[in-house]
């Protein structure tokens, strides 16, 4: 116990003594060329004094070693270390600058818009995009006219109370047909609700359009959807959903599956400028960029998200600049120029498949019709503005001028086609009206393999209700 106490006192005394020793840098460096520190002479033989002398010896030798090391390192340093101009951060190599500068929110010069035909249907320059066959050009034009006439007839049918709802593609016929012409039928389509022309191009008949709008038993959706919510497994056209932009992440997921299966095809998803303001768009395009999937993001920027103009949606230069922010190749196209759209989508498809990359296309256009039959667009824009776009920038008229200049179309052919399509649509509507509605059972099937008890009870209840109140239900709904 005595020895333990002695050692404790010795430790305390030593620490106190060492703290009292101060060597400045001048003295420390001076010792490099001087003899070793003289150790104090031992005048006593007590254990504490001996311990102090021992610790002093160790302390001075350590200081001498450190000072020598520092001096060597000082002499080995270059006169001036080179400055690093670039550093490879996890996000990539970045250059340094001494200038404090914030990137501009926008630039005065807007992204240019790719165009092939001017308003008069004349090529603005020699281009490979003009090298399309007569057969292809005529089919593109006739389908644009068919879509135009179909919209007119179905819109009138809704106003007559024959169908409950409709939305036209007026002013966007070139976007529908030209983009579809540039795709392969094996490519998957995730539409918004203003792309029936893509389905028309792939062979969906006027009668099938009528069946869907009237929601009869021949409707692919079995009457469960609103009119114009088309879908066709046969044509790789996913069913339209009213919810804005939900189809965009679905399209990216489908494209990822094509990549994993090494398919020689891609996915295209359509959406409006309003859709680009949703979180789904941003999540989807980033997902596509990171996973490098073959998907084409086709934005129909027609200036209006129902009644909300683009200047109240975003401050950026449209939608095309967002592609660069996510590392996605992008292009802005004249949405009223069928040849420009055809060329851009052809190039985007080739790039998406061969390079396994997403591509963003922003087609600038103008919706000259109402948003839907539930909308009156004259409440938020002038009639003069609408009429100006219908005249000067009409995509159907512009393409007609071009094919007529090639000698591929005539006034007689135009008149004959209009009469033929109107006749077909009239017959299709009359036929669809006569077809009975889907069975009551179709309200409950196609979800569960075996119908759960609660749905069986609901089905029984609705059957009982219809029988009890027959006068309140359509007679063409089979029980």
What does this structure look like?
Belongs to the BCKDHA family. It is found in: Mitochondrion matrix. The protein has about 475 residues and is α/β, with parallel strands linked by helices. Helix content is about 45%, strand content about 10%. The chain has 15 helices and nine strands. The chain has helices spanning about 1-20, 25-30, 45-75, 135-160, 175-180, 195-200, 205-215, 245-260, 280-290, 320-325, 340-355, 385-390, 395-405, 410-435, 455-470, and strands at about 85-90, 90-95, 190, 265-270, 295-300, 305, 310, 330-335, 360-365. Strands 3-4-5-9-8 form a five-stranded parallel β-sheet, sandwiched between helices. A two-stranded antiparallel ribbon has the order 1-2. Helix 5 packs across helix 11 (about 340-355) and helix 7 packs parallel to helix 14 (about 410-435). The longest helix has 30 residues, at about 45-75. It is globular, with a radius of gyration of 38 Å. The N and C termini lie far apart (about 105 Å). The model is unreliable at about 1-10, about 20-45 and about 50-75 (pLDDT under 50).
């Amino acid at each position: 116990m005595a020895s333990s106490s002695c050692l404790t006192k010795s430790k305390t005394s030593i620490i106190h003594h060492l703290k009292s020793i101060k060597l400045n840098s001048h003295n420390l460096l001076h010792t490099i060329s001087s003899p070793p520190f003289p150790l104090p002479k031992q005048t006593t033989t007590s254990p504490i004094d001996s311990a102090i002398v021992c610790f002093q010896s160790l302390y001075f030798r350590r200081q001498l070693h450190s000072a020598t090391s520092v001096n060597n390192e000082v002499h080995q340093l270059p006169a001036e270390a080179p400055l690093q101009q670039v550093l490879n951060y996890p996000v990539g190599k970045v250059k340094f600058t001494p200038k404090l500068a914030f990137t501009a929110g926008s630039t005065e010069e807007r992204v240019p818009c790719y165009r092939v035909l001017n308003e008069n249907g004349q090529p603005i320059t020699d281009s490979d995009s003009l090298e399309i066959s007569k057969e292809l050009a005529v089919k593109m034009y006739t389908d644009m006219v068919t879509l135009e006439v179909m919209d007119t007839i179905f819109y009138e049918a809704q106003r007559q109370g024959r169908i409950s709802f409709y939305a036209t593609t007026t002013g966007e016929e070139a976007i529908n047909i030209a983009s579809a012409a540039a795709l392969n039928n094996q490519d998957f389509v995730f539409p918004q609700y203003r792309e029936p022309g893509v389905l028309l191009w792939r062979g969906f008949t006027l009668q099938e359009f009528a069946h869907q709008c009237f929601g009869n038993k021949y409707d692919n959706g079995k009457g469960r959807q609103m009119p114009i919510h088309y879908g066709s497994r046969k044509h790789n056209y996913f069913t339209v959903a009213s919810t804005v932009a939900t189809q965009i992440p679905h399209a990216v997921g489908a494209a990822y599956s094509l990549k994993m299966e090494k398919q020689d095809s891609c996915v295209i998803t359509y959406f409006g400028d309003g859709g680009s303001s949703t979180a789904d768009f941003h999540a989807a395009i980033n997902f596509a960029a990171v996973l490098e999937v073959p998907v084409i993001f086709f934005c129909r920027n027609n200036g209006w998200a129902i009644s909300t103009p683009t200047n109240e949606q975003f401050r950026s230069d449209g939608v095309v600049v967002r592609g660069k922010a996510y590392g996605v190749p992008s292009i802005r196209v004249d949405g009223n120029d069928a040849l420009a759209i055809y060329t851009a989508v052809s190039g985007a498809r080739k790039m998406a498949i061969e390079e396994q990359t997403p591509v963003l296309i922003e087609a600038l256009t103008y919706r000259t019709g109402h948003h839907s039959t539930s909308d009156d667009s004259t409440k938020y824009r002038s009639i003069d503005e609408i009429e100006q776009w219908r005249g000067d920038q009409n995509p159907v008229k512009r393409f007609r001028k071009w094919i007529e200049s090639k000698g591929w179309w005539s006034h007689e052919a135009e008149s004959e086609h209009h009469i033929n399509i109107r006749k077909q649509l009239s017959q299709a509507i009359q036929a669809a009206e006569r077809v009975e509605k889907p069975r009551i059972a179709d309200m409950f099937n196609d979800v569960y393999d075996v119908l759960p008890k609660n749905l069986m009870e609901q089905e029984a209840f609705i059957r009982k209700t219809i029988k009890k109140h027959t006068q309140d239900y359509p007679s063409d709904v089979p029980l």
